[in-house]
Amino acid sequence: MGAPSTETTSTAVPPPTRGRGSGRGVRVIPWAVLALWIAVLALAGPLAGKLGDDQQNRAVDYLPSSADSTRVARLQDALPGGEATELVVVYHRDGGLTAADREEAAAQIAGVARAHRLTGGAPRAVLLHGDTVTYSVASTEPGQDDGAKDAFVADVRDRAEGGGGLTVHVGGPGALNTDMKEVYSSLDGPLLWTTVAVVAVLLILIYRSPLLWLLPLLVAGAADAAAMAGVHGLHQAFGITVTGQSQGVMTILVFGAGTDYALLLVSRYREELRRVPRPYDAMRAALRGCGPAVLASSGTVAAGLLCLLAADLNSSRGMGPIAAVGVLCALVAMTTLLPVLLVLLGRRVFWPLVPAYGSEVPRPRGLFTAMGGSAARRPLAVLAGGAVLLGALALGTLALPGSLKNDDAFTSVPESVAAMRIVAEAAPARSAQPITVMAPTGRAGEVLAAVRGTEGVASAERGRSGGGWTEVSVTAEAQPESPGEATIIHALRAELDGHYGAHVGGPGAQQADLADTSSRDRWVIVPLVLAAVLLILVVLLRSLVAPLLLVVAVIAVWGAALGIGGLVFGPLFGFEGTDPGLPLLSFVFLVALGVDYGIFLMHRMREESLAGAAPAAAAVTALRTTGGVIASAGLVLAATFSVLVNMPLVSLVEMGFVIAVGVLLDTFLVRTYLVTAASVALRERVWWPGRLSRPRPGP
Fold first, then answer.
1. Among 231, 294, 299, 239, which residue's Cα sits nearest to residue 262?
2. How many whole angstroms separate alpha carbon 587 and alpha carbon 305?
3. Is 686 left (phi over 0), alpha (psi -120 to 50) or beta?
4. pLDDT tens digits, 178-221
5. Where are the alpha helices (H) located in 569-614, listed in sequence order?
6. What are the φ/ψ torsions at residue 118 (nearest 5 degrees)?
7. Residues 6+ apart with CB under 8 A from 163
């Protein structure tokens, strides 16, 4: 899995490597670059710490401003008292509530009413079943920022206490938002340190050195701090949406992609140290050798990610520049700070496997040599077998569960979700969360009558008014976020929007809008990403066939990885739904990252062809020489994304699983084996219509 380990096991350092007689630049430039990075990190540190405060993790924050549910949320914000923090306090006892239970519940809710300004007067008890009673509590205290809303939820939870078999859960939209923010705020530390630990273990196994593994890790940490500061600046300047998901993915990309670039650079630097006496000159040669491929690959990844700017979904549109900043910061750090540290530490950094000046460069052998030989002997058979396997795996997409509901979004059940589930069991024919209709105040009576006359509506009550709008709270007969509720929402919109100018929102409407917007974004972004990546590859490889081959390969990887997800999400993980954004985001990342590795392989294949190698020999040599590095890089990237599988949000688990599986498929099957076989089968035609496509003698 790692880089070749045939270096000379010696700590001897030849005299020329100490820099005697070197120019002033050899001594000054590394220290100047290091000082510059120290200054950058000193400035970036305080800004990076503010990124967590920029996060927007409510479902409505993900939606475009044009969505009906977004308009409802904004109109609610403008009502007297600001946006209400709506809670449902659920009291439950198996076997039935006692009179003392109901008295205790009433007393606790009365205490909440005395401590806070609530809408609609004193909350009334609703007996859903003999064993469950609920109170709807909504705070309308003025000036409620996010901190005040969270404090209100915490206070209600402190006052509503059970015991002796009586359970109390505080749910509703306000509690769900609080729980969601707590989950996202808890991700930063565990996500970062788990990623660091995974990368550290892999680098130790790859390099087998007590010091070398630490350098890429430290540089990736510096890149992550710079990226966080840069994203904070983007948020302040342009208002891009920052979510816990996008910040977590950015950290994964910085460590994953950054370590990949480090593997390529260190591998080339190790080779050059055998040919060049001074580390400074060896590093210059290494940067000249692998720099173009690294720049091209990172540029392609960034370009693919920036295509997300065309998305309507705020979370996806923000993900594009955030992830691109992470990739570019990793690139800059690994091509400036890492080379400086390696040069300053000299050859001793590779101890105990020090590459001695003048020693022979070992000839790679092993798995990738065997794979190259197999692909060269039976390219069509390899292609046919791979196509059948990937096609069969892609059929698993038919088994993907439906859209993910709010109460299924967590891998462990928070209190707000537990409350919703108790209500659903106690009153299966009645919704546990309201649909909110915002009506022009002058027509509020007509809207209320129309809502009550809509099929599937259990009840509707008039709420707050202000700014020319009136709030109507609607209870549906169907369960929250079910197909039945979606039907009612669409019916209300069809009736109210055109005739009365009213808007329909609430949690269920937000989920419906998320699904609709995600579907629209897929139709726009997928072709855009393919066109952008294909254009860049045509320019880089000076061919049409080779870029098409790489693009088809990454599409096959995406389909197979998503299909494997469909086979395991329900049966193995027990997930009840699929995040609506998973197909698009996994496509963008797998295409961008898969093409990244394709550039490394095809760039080397092109070099061999330009040097006069026959088509089959060029393909096999490229695989043999780059396979080990690509495999190491793929393992690191897959491992970093697999960190998301341990996170407490289903959307992150699903994304991490699909991307990790896709990277592994791409690394060990598609990119290395099938692309090589296709290149052997196509011979010179793989470079059509460039000059390398002209037939030449040879196998």
1. 294
2. 10
3. alpha
4. 888 787 776 777 778 888 888 888 888 888 888 899 999 999 99
5. 582-610
6. -110, 150
7. none
